[in-house]
Automatic annotation (TrEMBL):
Membrane-spanning parts: 6-32, 53-75, 87-107, 142-160, 187-209, 230-249, 264-284, 305-324
Function: Core subunit of the mitochondrial membrane respiratory chain NADH dehydrogenase (Complex I) which catalyzes electron transfer from NADH through the respiratory chain, using ubiquinone as an electron acceptor. Essential for the catalytic activity and assembly of complex I. Core subunit of the mitochondrial membrane respiratory chain NADH dehydrogenase (Complex I) that is believed to belong to the minimal assembly required for catalysis. Complex I functions in the transfer of electrons from NADH to the respiratory chain. The immediate electron acceptor for the enzyme is believed to be ubiquinone.
A single MF term (Gene Ontology): NADH dehydrogenase (ubiquinone) activity
Name of the molecule in the record: NADH-ubiquinone oxidoreductase chain 2
InterPro entries the UniProt entry points to: Complex_I_Subunit_2, NADH_UbQ_OxRdtase_chain2, ND/Mrp_TM
Membrane-topology annotation of the record: Multi-pass membrane protein
Catalytic activity, reaction form: a ubiquinone + NADH + 5 H(+)(in) = a ubiquinol + NAD(+) + 4 H(+)(out)
Gene Ontology annotations for the cellular component aspect, listed alphabetically: mitochondrial inner membrane
One Pfam family named in its UniProt record: Proton_antipo_M
Highest taxon of source: Eukaryota
Positions of the NADH:quinone oxidoreductase/Mrp antiporter transmembrane domain: 22-277
Documented EC number(s): 7.1.1.2
GO BP, one annotated term: mitochondrial electron transport, NADH to ubiquinone
Length: 327
């Protein structure tokens, strides 16, 4: 399986590009099916009980939603006596379920708790691209607004009592998905959000993968030096969207866009619940900062040296961008 995994990665990329470049629903559906069938062997890369359960849950959710979507495409094509609004509603709900957006999110944190970090990175980043592009081509503001509010609330409240870092990152992903759906109609804007979010998430999960950390209580036993602690703290704050770090930029863009479109009510809910996400990001770092450090040296571990440098540059680049913009 490991020798042939490059083939599945290639099909995964090609299938997403097929969905993005299709001009009709059938082409998009074919791309999504190819994407599902290439992602499942990647989940099963290591044959154990957890990965098998994750692959089965993923297959059931994605295949059922694909069948519902396909049925709606056929009904629309044959001009069956069914209202256009109902067809769009069912299709929108099926795509949101495939995406893992609330209130259709229950499967996502469950399978993330059973997967490896490198597969989690794919699920939280690349796997969102095709469904998000499909939603941007649809028009059902009522369902989107409901999903935005639900995703922001569930993503914030769901991660509070989590001891599993993988589940916490899953709820964080749901929260960020609500912000991306808020600017979904403007492709260039949500793509900026998606790229910054993907880079930050990848860096965070890569650090967890290198450190072999899966639960909150393992963080205090990492024996990090001060430089790594400060760097990881900045990373967490950036993920929560705290200024002046890089993670604030996409949220700033979203807030400005919603003000321009007079979406004050939804924007207020989103800002309020983003404070709760900051709280559970801080929980990850609190124990480490309060615990006694075994070293006073401000130098990084050699195995994490490059990753730490990238994280620092990425998160502290926003003030520089703002200064250049002012000048």
């Amino acid at each position: 399986m490991k020798k042939s995994s490059w083939l599945f990665y290639m099909i995964l990329i090609i299938s997403t590009l097929i969905t993005l470049s299709s001009y009709n629903w059938m082409g998009m559906w074919i791309g999504l099916e190819m994407n599902m069938m290439s992602f499942m062997p990647l989940i099963l890369n290591k044959a154990n009980k957890s990965s098998s359960e994750a692959a089965m849950i993923y297959f059931l959710i994605q295949s059922v939603m694909s069948m519902i979507m396909f049925m709606m495409i056929i009904i629309e094509h044959i001009n069956y006596n069914l209202s256009k609004e109902l067809i769009n509603l069912v299709m929108m709900m099926s795509i949101l379920t495939k995406l893992g957006a609330a209130p259709f999110h229950y499967w996502m944190p469950t399978i993330m708790a059973k997967m490896e970090w490198n597969k989690i990175i794919l699920l939280m980043t690349w796997q969102k691209l095709a469904p998000m592009m499909m939603i941007s081509n649809m028009n059902n503001s009522m369902v989107i607004n409901l999903s935005i509010i639900s995703s922001v609330m569930v993503g914030s409240l769901g991660g509070i009592n989590q001891s599993s870092l993988r589940k916490m990152m899953g709820y964080s992903s749901i929260n960020h998905l609500g912000w991306m759906l808020a600017i979904n109609k403007f492709v260039s804007l949500w793509m900026i959000y998606f790229i910054i979010y993907s880079v930050l998430t990848t860096l965070m999960c890569k650090y967890f993968m290198i450190s072999k950390v899966y639960f909150l209580n393992q963080m205090s036993s990492l024996n990090m030096n001060n430089m790594e602690k400060v760097n990881l703290f900045i990373m967490m704050m950036s993920m929560g969207g705290l200024p002046p770090f890089m993670g604030f930029l996409p949220k700033w863009i979203t807030i400005q866009n919603m003000i321009n479109n007079s979406n004050y009510f939804i924007m207020t809910i989103m800002i309020m619940f983003s404070l709760i996400t900051l709280m559970y990001y801080m929980r990850v770092m609190t124990n480490m900062f309060l615990s006694f450090s075994t070293t006073i040296k401000w130098m990084t571990n050699k195995k994490n040296n490059a990753l730490m440098l990238i994280m620092m540059i990425m998160n502290l680049s926003l003030p520089l961008i703002m200064m250049l913009d002012i000048m």
